[in-house]
Amino acid sequence: MDTTVFTTIESEVRSYSRGWPTVFTQAKGAVQTAEDGTEYLDFFSGAGALNYGHNHPLLQKALVEYLTSDAPVHSLDMMTPAKRDFLQTFSDVILKPRGLDYKVMFPGPTGTNTVEAALKLARKVTGRQHILSFTNAFHGMTLGSLSVTGNSMKRKGAGIPLTNSSKIPYDDYFNGETEDFMWLERVLEDSGSGVDKPAAIIVETVQGEGGVRAARLEWLKQLSDLCGKHEILLIVDDVQAGCGRTGSFFSFEEAGFTPDIVCVSKSISGYGLPMALTLFRSELDVWEPGEHNGTFRGNNPAFVTATATLKEFWADDSFQKGQLAEAIATVHGALEQIAASVDGASVRGRGLLAGLHFADTEVANKVAAESFRNGLLVETSGPDDEVLKLMPALTTPKDQLERGMGIIAAAVAKVTGTDVAYQPGAGALAAA
Ligand code: PMP
């Protein structure tokens, strides 16, 4: 397998190819095949951009038909039938049934693009500059998104001061020792606190990059209430946790509140094609025409596959309550069994944005490397890569989920030297 060109010409900034040093030639469903014929089960799913697996046949068919029809591929924000179908379907299948009165904005097609649009809009609407974000948050690599990101290595990369934002403790930052919101409530109510009233607070309901930390639903609801009380806009960054990843289309649905602004990207196209949305309450739509733009906002092939995913998976609740719920029970059942076998290990996350935290910060990376040797792609997360992060496609068949969990269990046993008791099915029943 010739990898010379990657190591000689491609920049040192590359990262995933270092942990998974092989050349992938084929990708179907939950399996990627390498040039040497090795098959890898994929528990990474394009960092959450492939919630329906690789090359889903239904999406592929819609895409190929579109591409060979000579319909517009690129259209900035001009009107096309592909965009019309997407907007109509998104409204009918996602927004209306959830009672969400959101306008849909198409920013540039990446996660950081929708975050930048959200921050800009919040500042314009409120006339305030300051944004609050959370410890261990990750919102993207451009300057605005970095300014609300926690990771010090990523922040340092900006090379300039990241201003107009402050960090506040995420749920359970003090391991239950300090009452939640004590700091935030005091600071907002005290005119002597020195913290400028923010335009917005931006939050991930589950911190994907920051260690697969899931905020409690009641914490999220309280955060929303606090924002409402102080007329601060609440932005939910659902770039990674959205599009079904936590068990419902939006990750905040279970928590029973409506964010003012929602950032969506990664799996909205469902096929790995770049696409992003910024959703906001209609009265926040104060943009001037063209005030925020971008060349690649009209990615029509992405609109086509996005529409197909909505019709196939979200038009009723059969996928959510059936295959998705079962997949979540299978993964969490297995994780609970593995965690129970290892001293100090615990399960992190919600739905299929799940993790295993180990007391020894070296373990997760070693488990990921051992899993790769045994045919499984699984990554790590957290400031010290201390959490094994599992993001299988939502459509992964049960036997493949169990096979992947078996590889992880064996890797954990080898790395930690413990007997890991994993019995497919046992934990799933317990969790159901
Ligand atoms: N927000 C969140 C919550 C993310 O997880 C990510 C990407 N991991 C981003 C924003 C940035 O997305 P992108 O890499 O597409 O810019």
TrEMBL record:
> Which is an annotated Pfam family here?
Aminotran_3
> What are the EC numbers?
2.6.1.76
InterPro entries reported in the protein's UniProt record: Aminotrans_3, Aminotrans_3_PPA_site, Dat, Ectoine_EctB, PyrdxlP-dep_Trfase, PyrdxlP-dep_Trfase_major, PyrdxlP-dep_Trfase_small
Q: Which UniProt keywords apply?
A: Aminotransferase, Pyridoxal phosphate, Transferase
The answer to whether the entry has keyword Transferase is yes
Q: In which pathway does it act?
A: Amine and polyamine biosynthesis; ectoine biosynthesis; L-ectoine from L-aspartate 4-semialdehyde: step 1/3
The answer, when asked if Transferase is one of the entry's keywords, is yes
Give cofactor(s), names only.
pyridoxal 5'-phosphate
The UniProt family comment states: Belongs to the class-III pyridoxal-phosphate-dependent aminotransferase family.
What name does UniProt use for this protein? Diaminobutyrate--2-oxoglutarate transaminase
List the lineage, top down. Bacteria, Bacillati, Actinomycetota, Actinomycetes, Micrococcales
